[in-house]
Amino acid sequence: MYSQTAVSSYQNAAILAAEPAGGSPSLRDLFKGQPSDSYSAGEAIFWEGDEAGHIFDVLEGVLRVCKILPDGRRAIMGFIYPGEVLGVSLQSRYLFTAEAVTVVRVRRFSRNRFFTLVNESPELRPQLLAILCDEMSAAQ
Predict the structure, then answer these.
(1) Residue 6 and residue 10: Cα distance in Å, rounded?
(2) Which of 97, 62, 102 is nearest to 83 (CA)?
(3) For residues 61 and 8, what is the distance between their CA atoms, to the nearest angstrom?
(4) 27, 92, 105, 113: which has the fewest Cβ within 10 Å?
(5) What angle (nearest 5°) sits at the alpha carbon of residue 126, between those of residues 121 and 131?
(6) Can you give the pTM of this predicted structure?
(7) CB-based contact 68:88 (threshold 8 Å)
(8) What is the pLDDT of residues 16-38, one digit of tens each?
(9) Who contacts 90 (Cβ-Cβ below 8 Å, separation ≥6)?
């Protein structure tokens, strides 16, 4: 269903966006000072098709990202780990479901504010572009 290359690309882009080389600001820096939310194993942070109102920074735990197929089965796209940013596509709705595999703690940031700050920062734009391309590719 989803190639291993698409899954690996998505995970690699998430890591690159979170930790740029050379001490430059990272997308994760935008989340500093935001309160954290916790989710139990099996709980969805968001469902495919939900209005995409937030972007998430994973602080601890493991998330599974998947698409729900028409027959009700799940196609797992990959796993998200601490240090990765999730939910950054430019679509108005989330393109996949993100479920906690373990207890998960995330910080959330308003999408509108996130994109405004990224647009104001030449250092953050390439990081966003890298993760956007791979998130969209994996979602297809």
Answers:
(1) 6
(2) 62
(3) 19
(4) 92
(5) 120
(6) 0.76
(7) no
(8) 344 555 567 888 889 999 999 99
(9) 132
